[in-house]
Write a structure and sequence with these properties.
Radius of gyration: 24 Å
Largest sheet: 7 strands, mixed
Bound molecules: NADPH dihydro-nicotinamide-adenine-dinucleotide phosphate
Helix content: 40-55%
Shape: globular
Number of helices: 16
Strand order of the largest sheet: 14-15-16-13-12-17-18
Strand content: 15-25%
Length: 479
């Protein structure tokens, strides 16, 4: 762990990290004592005044240096993150590490973005409070202070880089706590940030459970903002604690992406797009279109296409280059996914693919699973799997598609497949969701990313992500 610029062992001991594919122990992670979490937050608070006054160029250079060091350690990081997450080689090589480097580079540039917003002069009348006249004004983006960054297990270093990068660029100091299942690469990350030359206390890394280290961090009086990515129930609990002290919040929470396929859609594209995200990182991705809403005219073709796609996905050893679906993170997560599949079937869904454990000696695998003929209120349609499971619902028309898409508590990422651009745009604007992909699952990292409803509060992404780690201050003068 990295506390106040020192690399330290866990005060509460250490625990085993298990490879989800082999079930073998691949390392030991430090378990932070609550006093160490508090020391990390205090160090961040002490470092804040000086760090917030550093020149933007200096912050940019340090973030770029961290990106360089991460690139140099890629050969070490890829197998490490692969072993602790169970990610396939393709996911580890193309996403887990390179995206993390990209985020540091993006926010090195972010440090140089203007923080002063000129405002038009305003003529003010004389009042009992002050004599009138023309008032000049600017708005200034100020850093918030100490940011606690708490992340889920699916993309440990990518999620972390997406928080640390903009927070530091804006002049905040940070304490990060990764998910307990896979914190090893994040601890290497801590070493990299120390070597990059960030002053002591600017970046701190503590590892351990949410119940101990996570809660201690959220409730620390030194923490001014909590940036959390994870499940909706935990986000709500964090929001309640943070709200008591008016801590600023950025919450990226659960999703249950609708994939609306209209009669006029290019079906091969729709099916290929949905399938590519369905299996991606074994469905442990919050933006996946796991709730397919197909218009009746194409319903049978969509189901048949998805069934064929499931049959083609190779499940197994994440190290094999042709493996598409690796394991879930843990036995607990596998049991949770299987229980929700059973509930979906008990409530009237029909199993069209998967639903069983693949025949493998080890690992927490679930075969790509397709549940069709679901009513919109089926638990499998309403609740998040965070596993390789897609459900299909039939609808008659556009209005019904929108109503079903909007019927869950989530609102993170939906998809519309239609050849009619005007229709796709019209439907997109009626969706109560933070993000919509039209005929694509590709993202644009400059676009704001975040949730409506129970999917979260605030926005990541590009300059929006940078601004999320700032407070707006108005400065007004006569003349
Ligand atoms: P969790 O919400 O279970 O955990 C996330 C992190 O919070 C972990 O580090 C966890 O530690 C910690 N934590 C738990 N309780 C507390 C607490 N009271 N105070 C502080 N920290 C706490 O999520 P998962 O790790 O299971 O990840 C899956 C979830 O993440 C899914 O719901 C998914 O949709 C969501 N997610 C959202 C994304 C988005 O951008 N919207 C992106 C990726 C995932 P511990 O495990 O010990 O409890």
């Amino acid at each position: 762990m990295l506390v106040g610029g020192e690399l330290v062992a866990g005060g509460a001991g250490s625990y085993d990290i298990v490879n989800p594919a082999t079930e073998a122990v691949v390392g030991q992670a430090p378990e932070a004592a609550v006093t160490q979490v508090e020391a990390a937050a205090a160090a961040a608070a002490e470092a804040f005044p000086a760090w917030s006054r550093t020149r933007p160029e200096e912050r940019a250079a340090l973030l770029d240096r961290a990106a360089d060091l991460l690139r140099e350690r890629m050969d070490e990081l890829i197998p490490l993150v692969q072993a602790e997450t169970g990610a396939t080689l393709r996911v580890a090589k193309t996403m887990q590490v390179p995206t993390c480097i990209e985020r540091f580079r993006r926010y090195a540039r972010g440090a140089l973005e203007p923080t002063t917003i000129p405002l038009p002069p305003s003529e003010m009348p004389t009042t009992a409070l002050a004599s009138g006249g023309i008032m000049g004004a600017i708005a200034v983006r100020q850093p918030v202070g100490v940011v606690a960054c708490i992340t889920p297990y699916n993309f440990p270093i990518v999620n972390m880089a997406g928080k640390i990068g903009p927070a530091l660029a804006m002049g905040n100091t940070v304490v990060v706590k990764p998910a307990p299942q896979d914190p090893l690469a994040v601890t290497v990350f801590g070493e990299v940030l120390r070597e990059a030359g960030f002053p002591p206390g600017v970046v701190n890394v503590v590892t351990g459970s949410g119940a101990e280290a996570g809660q201690a961090l959220v409730s620390s009086p030194h923490v001014d903002m909590v940036s959390f990515t994870g499940s909706t129930p935990v986000g709500r609990a964090i929001g309640e604690v943070a709200g008591r002290d008016m801590k600023r919040l950025l919450l990226e929470l659960g999703g249950k992406g609708a994939g609306i396929v209209f009669d006029d859609a290019d079906l091969p594209t729709a099916i290929a797009t949905i399938s590519s995200v369905w299996a991606f990182h074994s469905g442990q991705i919050c933006t996946a279109p796991t709730r397919v809403i197909a218009q009746r005219g194409v319903y049978d073709q969509v189901v048949a296409g998805l069934q064929q796609a499931a049959g083609r996905m190779k499940v197994g050893d994440p190290l094999a280059p042709d493996t598409v679906v690796g394991p879930l993170i843990s036995e607990v997560q596998r049991d949770r996914v299987e229980a929700l599949v059973r509930a979906g079937i008990e409530q009237g869904g029909e199993l069209a693919a998967g639903g069983t454990r693949p025949e493998l000696d080890h690992g927490f695998y679930v075969a790509p699973t397709l549940i069709v003929g679901c009513k919109p209120d089926n638990a499998a349609v309403q609740q998040e799997f965070f596993g390789p499971v897609v459900v299909v619902v039939a609808v008659d028309d556009e209005d019904e598609a929108v109503a079903v898409a909007n019927s869950t508590e989530f609102g993170l990422y939906d998809y519309v497949f239609s050849a009619d651009t005007a229709r796709a745009m019209r439907v997109a604007k009626q969706l109560r969701t933070g993000n919509v992909g039209i005929n694509t699952a590709q993202r644009n990292h400059e676009a704001p990313f975040g949730g409506f409803k129970m999917s979260g509060v605030g926005r990541d992404g590009g300059s929006f992500g940078l601004h999320a780690y700032s407070e707006l201050q108005s400065i007004v003068w006569p003349g």
